[in-house]
Design brief:
Layout lengths: L1 E8 L4 H11 L5 E5 L4 E5 L5 H8 L6 E9 L16 H4 L1 H19 L9 H21 L2 H8 L4 H5 L2 H19 L3 H24 L5 E2 L8 E2 L2 H19 L1
Antiparallel strand pairs: 1-3, 1-4, 2-3, 5-6
């Protein structure tokens, strides 16, 4: 049985993968589409590349390019990928860099303030959370449509109510300004605790199910895999909000 492999250009998120897979599914007995690397593998397909690309033009700017065609038995073991896995630090470097910047900038703001105490942890938390939500919403707002498609791959509410994926970046933006202006602290902290705790449930579910999907915490600008790092990120925000509510 033939196995045809193609590179796929134009895919930027999990939503793109889902659309490409749904479009090509009828042309093969078995189909696999991945984002990193951007590949489509069709087993038992008699369709030529022109037919496949014509089908893809109806859903977006996606295009297949041939990289390998071979007549292999389905039961044959595929060649091992000799490319080493990305180092953990290299993979999460953008996220760690952003957290570091926000931490040191907000520490500088707090240490340079006129508070009677040399360091007011509550004020620092409010500044940190303002920075977190403003920066993270910025990356999501660069491409709201792609973010919403990726977010719907794992968030429990966005799966069932698609508009929530479009609302979420603006919700984060509003929380950022609320913390920055110290507007209605009790309401802001309760909303943050509820939103971030609920968001973590979908992430935990995906990690436990070992789903290999993209984390949309930084929108679709960076290709960050879903992992325990995302869980820590969500629960950290929820925990800080809860701390400010009870203390």
């Amino acid at each position: 049985m033939s196995i045809n492999k193609y590179t796929v250009s134009g895919m930027t998120c999990g939503g793109c993968v889902a659309k490409v897979k749904a479009t090509l599914a009828g042309f093969a007995d078995n189909l696999e589409v991945t984002l990193d690397p951007p590949l489509a593998t069709l087993t038992g397909s008699n369709a030529n590349i022109d037919t496949l690309n014509k089908a893809l033009t109806g859903i977006g700017h996606y295009q297949l390019s041939i990289i390998e065609n071979s007549n292999l038995e389905v039961n044959d073991k595929p060649a091992k990928n000799d490319e080493p896995a990305k180092d953990w630090l290299a993979t999460y470097y953008p996220l760690l860099l952003i957290f570091t910047f926000i931490t040191f900038v907000t520490l500088a703001i707090q240490l340079g303030s006129n508070d009677e105490l040399p360091f007011n942890i509550r004020h620092w938390m409010m500044h940190f959370m303002a920075g977190f939500f403003l920066v993270f919403s910025f990356f999501k707002l660069l491409d709201v449509r792609s973010f919403a498609a990726s977010y719907a791959m794992y968030d429990l509410l966005a799966m069932r109510f698609k508009p929530y994926g479009f609302i979420y970046p603006f919700l984060e933006l509003g929380l950022g300004f609320a913390y920055l202006l110290a507007w209605q602290p009790a309401f802001t902290n309760w909303l943050t605790f509820i939103v971030m705790t609920f968001s973590s449930l979908g992430v935990i579910r995906s990690v436990l199910n070992k789903q290999k999907i993209r984390c949309a915490c930084l929108g679709t600008v960076f290709n960050l895999p879903m992992s325990t790092v995302t869980i820590i990120e969500d629960l950290l925000m929820a925990g800080m909000a809860l701390w400010m509510l009870v203390l």
